[in-house]
Amino acid sequence: METRFQFQNPDLFRSLCGIADANIPALESILSVRLIPRGNSFVIQGREDATVDLATRLFDRIARDYEHRPRHGIEEFDIKYIYSMLQKKEQNGAVQNDDSVTYLEDDSTSSGDDATDRATRYPTDHDDVEPAEALESTRQKVFVTARGKPIYPRTHRQAAYLESIQSNPVTICLGPAGTGKTFLAIVTACRKLLNGEVDRIILTRPAVEAGESLGFLPGDLNQKVDPYLRPVYDALYECMGMEKVHSMIAARKIEIAPLAYMRGRTLNQAMVVLDEAQNCTLAQLKMFLTRLGRNSFMCLGGDETQVDLNPGKSGLLKAVKILENVSGVSVIRFGKEDIVRNPIVEKIVAAFEQEEARQ
């Protein structure tokens, strides 16, 4: 079968093709069709009508979305994500009512029971979201970095995560590496601080790391833990720039400390982010969660497959089981489809999942 798709936006077409049509082989591999560029259009050739039709619908979806979500071109991740959503729709054959979805608002400052209800209504199951809804949820710009780069959620689960952090007192996020658990939490924290919604940001993590004993490292506890907080610093620098971050740390607007320093405190008017929560015991998580003060928000992120504690000691999944039905606590679960690092990372995660399933 052969058909032709005409792009109205030449910039989008050039972005898809790449320099000297360098992107076309990757597109053909994803879509299982042959693409022949003609002017501002693709001639789409395929062995099966369904394959050609799916490729046509993908380009139509991208063209409509591009007008509402200006970015620096369309990346391979976006194409794969939209294609997977269209495939899910075709396999499921189900249509969801648009009224069941609440989208992230760029100027959202909502709080209270209504906001909690909205966040918990947000669909986070990859199979339960229509492509149009999934794409709509990724159109809303949530932050602009110090270098002027706009930050958007890349998947509907990331959009749900951002909405939850904005609206709920406590958000717990589970998912593999590379899904944006830490980065998006810090983006939201910076946004809340700069908008005056909170007075300070507190970033923390447990003093445990894979295969290492902190007792044998030189320095005091802060010096021992500081190297392991590099991802947190990197995210802060990306959002606000190094100079502003250090000035805010000096002014105590931003605090970065090991989890042990949270004991006995009441954290008011703060956005508190706990990274690597899978390395906390249940007692530590209880201690941390009960620090929450007035007008504060907490976000806990962790990957339950990368626990550095002895078997059975991690309290993250136990805490989720205890709290997931508590009003004001939202649990977001990322999957390998949400990994936005190098595409090989998704394949690595899938390979490990298959191996673990065989054991």
Keywords for this entry:
2 domains; 42% helix; alpha/beta; Ribosomal Protein S8, Chain: A, domain 1; globular; 359 residues; Rossmann fold; 3-stranded antiparallel β-sheet
Secondary structure: number of strands: 11
Instruction: Kindly identify the CATH topology of the largest domain.
Output: Rossmann fold
Tally of separate domains = 2
Taken as a percent bin, the fraction of beta residues is 5-15%
CATH class descriptor of the largest domain: Alpha Beta
Q: Which class best fits the helix and strand makeup?
A: alpha/beta
- The average pLDDT value, as a whole number, equals 80
State the helical fraction.
40-55%
CATH architecture tag of the largest domain:
3-Layer(aba) Sandwich
Order of helices and strands: EHHEEHHHHEEHEHEHHHEEHEHEH
Quick one: CATH superfamily of the largest domain? Answer: P-loop containing nucleotide triphosphate hydrolases
Between the first and last Cα atoms, what is the distance in angstroms? Answer: 44 Å
Largest sheet: 6 strands, parallel
Topology:
Elements: E1 2-6, H1 10-17, H2 24-31, E2 34-38, E3 41-45, H3 49-68, H4 76-92, H5 113-121, H6 131-137, E4 143-144, E5 150-151, H7 156-167, E6 170-174, H8 181-194, E7 200-205, H9 221-225, H10 230-240, H11 242-250, E8 254-258, E9 270-274, H12 282-289, E10 297-302, H13 316-323, E11 329-333, H14 343-358
Parallel strand pairs: 6-10, 6-11, 7-8, 7-9, 9-10
Antiparallel strand pairs: 1-3, 2-3, 4-5
